[in-house]
Amino acid sequence: YLVGVGRADCTGPVAQVPLMGYANFDQVGGGLLSRLYSRAFIVADPEGSARLVFVSADIGMVSQRVRLEVLKQLRSKYGELYRQDNVILSGTHTHSGPGGYFQYTLLWITSKGLIRPALSSIVNGIVKSIDIAHENMKKGRIFINRGTVENSQINRSPFSYLENPESERKRYSSNTDKEMVVLKMVDEYGHELGLISWFAVHPVSMNNSNRLVNSDNVGYASYLFEQEKNKGMLPGEGSFVAAFASSNLGDVSPNTRGPFCANTGESCDNPHSTCPVGGAAMCMAEGPGNDMFESTRIIGQNIYLKAKELYEKASQEVTGPLSSAHQWVNMSDVSVQLNATHTVKTCKPALGHSFAAGTTDGVGAFNFTQGSVEGDPFWDQIRDQLLGEPSNETKDCHKPKPILFSTGEMTWPHPWHPDIVDVQIAAIGSLAILAVPGEFTTMSGRRLREAVKSEFDSHGARGMNVVIAGLCNVYTHYITTYEEYQVQRYEAASTIYGPHTLSAYIQLYRGLAKAIALNATQELPRGPEPPLFNVTKVTLLPALGAENAPAAKTFGDVLEEVRQEYREGEVAAVTFVGANPRNSAENATEHNFLTVERYSNISSSWRVVLNDASWDTRFYWSKGSRGQSNVTIEWHIPAGTEPGVYRLRYFGHYKKRVFLLTTVTIPFEGSSSAFQIT
User: Fold this and answer.
1) Alpha-carbon dihedral of residues 208, 211, 212, 215, nearest 10 degrees?
2) Is there a domain that residue 571 lies in?
3) Counting Cβ atoms within 10 Å, is residue 413 exposed (0-12), middle (13-18) or buried (19+)?
4) Residue 574, domain CATH
5) Residue 198 Cα distances to 53, 56, 245, 248, angstroms
6) What is the rounded CA–CA span in Å between residue 407 and residue 416?
7) Which helix (H) or strand (E) holds 636?
8) Edge-to-edge strand order for the sheet containing 420-428?
9) One domain for residues 465 and 562
10) In angstroms, rounded to a whole number, what is the distance separating the alpha carbons of residues 440 and 61?
């Protein structure tokens, strides 16, 4: 194959923008723990014209809006080279990245609007990572390996899982998929290029109290792998690219201690995830660490170490033709042939009452509980007044789900949920990547993989490795099995196309697999093209106005100085007169907010040893009154830090009023005093 890899920043604004994932209105960005990246991998046939692109981006999910804008840019740059059928865009599902990149109303509301700087950062970052991979294409080889990851996940809806037939459950040793699949890419001389790992776990080690933008546990795994391979480079630099991509993570949590009542400390591992005092709002799962930062590192490190072992031992080469199959499907109207006599249908999208309960990784508001198969007259009445009552047809179609939001019947100002959904498979020789538009649960993913594998087998493509790439192309929430759907925990309440959603996807992906196996992808109907809405520019983000420094101070001045001396394990911290970090995101595509610098006696100069992409640094922004704000930079000094003289620097932009209504953006910087690490 010809192989190319690329990585580009897609962080976007780190302040005031709602973080995407927990749908918690209070959880808005207030700084940066680690940068977000798009990682692109291109594989092409050196003889023919076939090529595939796989992108894993450190974002909550790929939205239809992001995908359509990326494809549009690729078309204008490369013509018909990169298209909807051979480009897969997957989100890692971090819950600590900026939102605001959605056109469907439900997600538009929870993001406080369509936030252009956030959307542009993601779209441009993805395109740039593909550009870099495109420019770096070289002859190469791909190897595959798989193995088991321990102590890194639990099933967060075990009572739903137990609804699946016992005969089916008996075939598996665990209620989560512990298998990791790793692809290793090298050039023709054996020089290492990159890796893709697929493993099913929610990146929710950072909980919904977090305000710092970061890529969570899988992002930390990428960071460790890239730091190791790009020796001597700053984080985010260097040619080796390591993507830790999402898979069928629907019911899989990294919070391995399980759910406890926050007020009493007793377990709340029960069918409704409720506590005797305080109800469902008190039931929260805990990670393995002492705090969320440590839990993120522990889970990320586990994943990284397994990937490293599988990568080093990978010897099975992937060979064979490249192909891709894609269709757009109206998921609210699919007829599924269950057997010779029985046909069922999918439904217009709707969310159940337990959607509002959230999960033990991030509980909802108003004390909704998981596993509600009856509506609540109080909330139903409020909904009927505000949003209108669901039609009888939709109610019947979704049974036993009690509908909270009949999103498929809500169209103001735009539809609340997608009807047109992408289904897509890309095959690299004996590897088939199923790009799925949402979060399949453990058993849903197993059924889908098995069905596709047997479809390949029956058409002569035997022994395919089938992996699921999650959160691709458009977001459609969750996909549970029919049996899990009956008990209506969060994942089932969020299976928006009704009880037969999984059966519909299995039918559709079988069709794609058959087309690939028979070399008939050209004959697949394209399906109805998804809409691109003209979404309003109005957002609930505060406007960026002129800013001020306190009296007798200027931007970048130190308000609280570092100590003169630290040891490893301590935290060096400095607070500056700051400015809104959104100014920087809107002015520079790649802005670095901070550096840690070490003084070199040999060259008598300061050398940058860390930047804001480092997981050891934290950048906090806090807004004061009268246009003033502070920035605090922390460096959590790790074991093994070289003793010496260091300083912390801050780089920002502030808005200055020049006329009555116009402002200009002015860059500034600040530095702490020098301090010693002993």
Assistant:
1) 20
2) yes
3) exposed
4) 2.60.40.2300
5) 16, 10, 5, 9
6) 5
7) strand 629-636
8) 322-330, 420-428, 431-435, 465-469
9) no
10) 13
93 marked as binding residue: yes
Residue 475 assigned as binding residue: no
Q: Give the three-class secondary structure for 649.
A: strand
Q: Tens of pLDDT along 209-232? A: 999 999 999 999 999 999 999 999
Q: Is 477 annotated as a binding residue?
A: no
- pLDDT number for residue 561: 98
Please indicate if the annotation marks 636 as binding a ligand.
no
What domain range is 632 assigned to? 557-677
- 188 found inside a domain: yes
Q: Exactly one of 152, 247, 253, 406 is catalytic; which is it? A: 253
276 assigned to some structural domain: no
Q: List, for residues 603-661, the tens digit of each pLDDT value.
A: 999 999 999 999 999 999 999 999 999 999 999 999 999 999 999 999 999 999 998 88
- Asked if residue 623 belongs to a domain, the reply is yes
How many residues does the structure list for the chain? 678
Helices (H), 188-291: 216-229
Q: Which residues neighbour 367 within 8 Å (Cβ) at sequence distance 6 or greater?
A: 279, 280, 281
Closest CA to 247 of 509, 434, 94, 42: 434
Tell the residue number behind the tokens 């290029």, with chain if given: 193
* Same-domain pairing of 69 and 197: yes
Structurally, the chain folds into a number of domains equal to 2
Q: How confident is the model at residue 536 (pLDDT cuts 50, 70, 90)?
A: confident
Q: How far is CA 312 from the centre of its chain?
A: 26
Active site residue 56: no
